[in-house]
Design a protein that fits this description.
By secondary structure, the chain is an alpha/beta fold. It has a five-stranded parallel beta sheet with strand order 2-1-3-4-5, with helices on both faces. Strand 3, helix 7 and strand 4 form a beta-alpha-beta unit. The mean pLDDT is 95.
Amino acid sequence: MGDCYSGMETEKLNPLTQNIDLCSVQEIVTMINREDAKVADAVKEAIPQISEAVERIYKALKGGGHLLYMGAGTSGRLGVLDASECMPTFGVEKDLVQGCIAGGDVALRFPIEGCEDDAELGKKQIEIFEIGEKDVVVGISASGRAPFVIGAMERAREVGAQTVAVVNNPESKIKEYVDVCIEAVTGPEVISGSTRMKAGTAQKMILNMLSTATMIKLGKVYGNLMVDLKASNKKLEDRAERIFCKATGKSREVANRYLKDSGMNSKVAILMCLSDLNRKEAEDMLEQSDGFLRVALGKTKEV
């Protein structure tokens, strides 16, 4: 077992940081920053696979499917984080994008030993989340060998779901169980084996791409404005007003009025303002346009 892991890129000793324990604070953080600078290039190499994964996820969600992230430890926490941000940012239903971490929610704060090594537990999660042929499951594992994640991928395939892996080692074991394997090979960590560092950073970047690109393709933005956000607190209410102002060129006072009239729906409010439609008409027009504000605005000009 030891030999399996010792040969992995993420487990190797980094020759550039072997004397880090003798360094000053500024030298330490400079080393970390220098290594972190390599992450974006590693992710760039995986863009073709990331793009393929987005296409699959987008088509699945558009067809009524769901997206589930599966991971253990740092990888699981990052999956849960990305999933939890989709609802307030893009206004999606809470079950559209979900995250599952080995050990359950307690593992978000504390390490739960042994769960990562339980393939059967991974398989069980696929059943708990009621994954089926319309869905996509993304397994996240720096090593690409976590039994919990591999078990989940194996079961997901059995039920007909599409499978994607996000890993940080080339030709990892999980590759046998997925349709798309995204390999961001970030190399040896600053602290040997500490995959919460470069590997985790690469995973975060990739998950950002998967969810954000998918939501853009689903019509959740107008230009680069998050017009489907849920204004669930004061900060987001303020952001909704600013988004309205940027999209329409109108004042805060006008924004406040239209947002209230639209039920705090930025997309509906903007369409009402720019087209003179009432709330019901704007909602119907957006539905006819698959939720794309730009398309809905174009249709109002045709009428």
